[in-house]
């Protein structure tokens, strides 16, 4: 909290516009924006939701089960939902003992837990916005599922459309109505990475392309797909990193939820 903000809060208390108790809560919250956990090895950004709309997501790879558990416990204490990406199966098993209601997606290597009852959950009773998550082939599923699990955690409706790569163009044609209904389309593809450009030419929505490391020698672990997607002729295609399902899901979720909020505002304006 900077000096100007603090002065404004103090003046609000002086003018009677803000209760002293509220000021105390704000100061306490500001003092705990970074919370050290796991013996100081982890710094939890407790203000992430206030700044960015969603709590901090845990990158599980390389973290000990104890460190992950400490973060989850702190988020649950704050009434927040949790998402862990790239989680080791053993760590997921340990967490499931502590939180049996959690969802572990072994394909996506994700683990998510809703906010405790009464908490400020990301997941809404009615999903906000919609995203189609597409794979060119079934070997792209781990990346696509990471994106889908991220979207579910964000409270966005997900339509999964799998195995519609360019080698079978009729498969894409059959699913076009679903693709055109989505606020955003995510396309995960390896090999030469052609599918996002083709999808982009059929829809009016943003297309987020995810190159995957699927392919033979000259695919160079996804670099060929990445370069092909970056050079897409379809103007509505943007690209994230190789195998970056989480990044694609998060970005799509932010766009879709804002699109839904805009529709809601327009409907309210029309009613009035």
TrEMBL record:
GO terms for molecular function: hydrolase activity. Signal peptide: none annotated. Pfam families: AIRC (PF00731). Residues 129-270 form the PurE domain. One of its GO terms (biological process) is 'de novo' IMP biosynthetic process. This is AIR carboxylase.
């Amino acid at each position: 909290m900077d000096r100007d903000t603090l002065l404004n809060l103090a003046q609000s208390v002086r003018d009677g516009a803000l209760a002293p108790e509220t000021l105390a809560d704000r100061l306490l919250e500001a003092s705990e924006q970074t919370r050290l956990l796991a013996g100081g090895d982890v710094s939890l950004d407790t203000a992430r939701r206030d700044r960015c709309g969603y709590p901090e997501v845990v990158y599980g790879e390389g973290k000990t089960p104890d460190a992950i558990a400490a973060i989850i416990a702190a988020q649950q204490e704050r009434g927040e939902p949790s998402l862990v990406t790239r989680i080791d199966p053993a760590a997921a098993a340990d967490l499931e003992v502590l939180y049996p209601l959690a969802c572990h997606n072994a394909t996506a290597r994700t683990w998510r837990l809703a906010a405790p009852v009464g908490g400020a959950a990301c997941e809404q009773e009615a999903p906000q916005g919609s995203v189609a998550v597409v794979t060119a082939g079934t070997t792209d599923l781990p990346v696509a599922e990471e994106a889908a699990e991220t979207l579910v955690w964000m409270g966005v409706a997900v339509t999964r459309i799998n195995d519609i790569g360019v080698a079978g163009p009729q498969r894409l044609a059959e699913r076009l109505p679903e693709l055109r209904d989505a606020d955003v389309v995510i396309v995960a593809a390896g090999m030469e990475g052609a599918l996002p450009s083709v999808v982009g030419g059929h829809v009016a929505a943003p297309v987020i392309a995810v190159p995957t490391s699927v392919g033979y020698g000259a695919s160079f672990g996804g670099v060929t797909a990445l370069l092909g997607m970056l050079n897409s002729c379809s103007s509505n295609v943007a690209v994230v990193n190789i195998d970056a399902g989480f990044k694609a899901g998060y970005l799509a979720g932010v766009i879709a939820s804002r699109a839904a909020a805009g529709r809601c505002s327009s409907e309210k304006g029309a009613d009035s």
